[in-house]
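Hello Y.,

Per our agreement to keep a running log of every chain we model this quarter, I'm adding this entry. I've kept the format consistent with earlier entries: sequence first, then predicted structure.
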Amino acid sequence: MACAGILFHSSRLIISRGLQKVHHRLQGRRMISCIDPSIGLADEQKEFQKVAFDFAAAEMAPNMAEWDQQEIFPVETMRKAAQLGFGGIYVQPDVGGSGLSRLDTSIIFEALSTGCTSTTAYISIHNMCAWMIDRFGSEEQRHRYCPKLCTMEKFASYCLTEPGSGSDAASLLTTAKRDGDHYVLSGSKAFISGGGEADVYVVMCRTGVKGSKGISCVVVEKGTPGLSFGKKEKKVGWNSQPTRAVVFEDCAIPLTNRIGEEGQGFNIAMHGLNGGRINIGT
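Predicted structure for the entry above:
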């Protein structure tokens, strides 16, 4: 028993010392660690990682608590981030994006999150929406939307979740019925990050049969008649990104706002989330 006790206390001592070595501390609100996050990265990746770390320390970390406590959506700070290329990280350069890889994107989001996780999470959603338009939109749509999204002159929100269809997204009920050269949307989306503040809403809606094959993807712009928003959700954190319901009441948009073909929306939504999960995971 004595030997066991010695081993137990020795193990605790070793673990304690180990934890002390990897303990993160805030120094001037900059995260310091004995683990070098640049290990294994190419020189170019180290450069934009440093830019992201420096921006997070200088522009985000000092304001993080205030943004959360006062529920501030930090528009100007995010536009400063966009000036560094963080508004359309993996969007193609011909429409204003940085044209970086998914790994590069993860490196940047990991660094930015040391300044404010909530704001970085919204920036990642915005990037996902811009990429979806860039990847699946027509040339006209790419050039209409992506440049202002990449500069964050305009902000984007992703609208898939509904009050009755969260995990089962293929059963969504928001409809988009053809009326001449327009779709008329009816329905609502729930828990939308950036809801009410964003300018561009990438919306999954039903244009056809039940199930995933009847879903299409459209863009609805803020200010469109019939588009409205619920009250801001009360949350215990992540308050620098507002969360609201997005409501469509006979909301008419041009057919030219559809991204991809009819029935392709679920596939587009899942492609977006495949990358979005990587972004959030970092």
